[in-house]
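INSTRUCTION: Work out how this chain folds

Fields: amino acid sequence; protein backbone structure tokens

Chain under study, with its fold:
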Amino acid sequence: MIQESSKTILVIEDDAVTRNLFLDGLEAEGFDTIGAENGLIGIQKAQMHLPDLVVCDIFMPDMDGYSVLNTMRQDPLTAIIPFIFLTGSDNKADVRKGMELGADDYITKPSTVEELLRAIAIRLEKQSLLRYWYATKSHQISESIPANKTPSVTSESIFPAIPQLKEVFDYIEANYHRGITLSNVAEAVGYSPAYLTSRVAKKTGETVNGWIVKRRMAAARPLLRDTDQTIEQIATALGYQNACHFSRQFRQHHGLPPKIWRNQNQFSQVVSSKNTNLQVIDTCSQYEDYAPLGQS
């Protein structure tokens, strides 16, 4: 198994034996782990630590796994964290309900640590590939923008061209900077949050809240790279209640806090600009040895 020492896994499981078994197995493979004995504590720890992935039992007292997932998907801070359900039931209706709420995978107990590790590896790899794809696409978009124009990102450059979801993406495009969530989008297009989550996930492999965050990140990059606005000003402009939420989600998507990302990318742009200026100077110097026509 590939070591994932930088990845943090939150396990929400009311059965202490099962919870400790999974925590010990994950730690043995190099993961950082967090345990929670019920859904409410699990949500609190998810919001506090922003783990890379959540493993959660479905049937727990007080707050079941469905409620945990629904709460996390409603919160922009935890909406895009991959989520794997654990359950002792193989009822298809239970599986369908979890997937409609936006679960990424489903493991039936009793299960081994090896089965859990395989499921986690697949989810983390998918997240990594999506992050790379969007980072690459963003770079291509930025390169195509003329230097004398203010960079902007259009909905066409971020959202896939799916006619059935055009209304959804149009609403996100028009309101992503207003602090919207899944509930706002669902109400605007006339669907229940659960149905809309399922519909968008089946078509795109991503949740509604995930697309909201991706749109904000696409707008954040040029603001960080090409303006002198503070992190707080950018966070406010993108609909975040405070800079901490923005910084955490930016780090989730890019692997770096926004300040470090800004320093690296502004430096790269300066170096590129200097190299271009040097080429221009070198080209001009070639002509200095020649006198203009009519002069000697």
Observations:
- The domain at 8-123 is CATH 3.40.50.2300 (Rossmann fold).
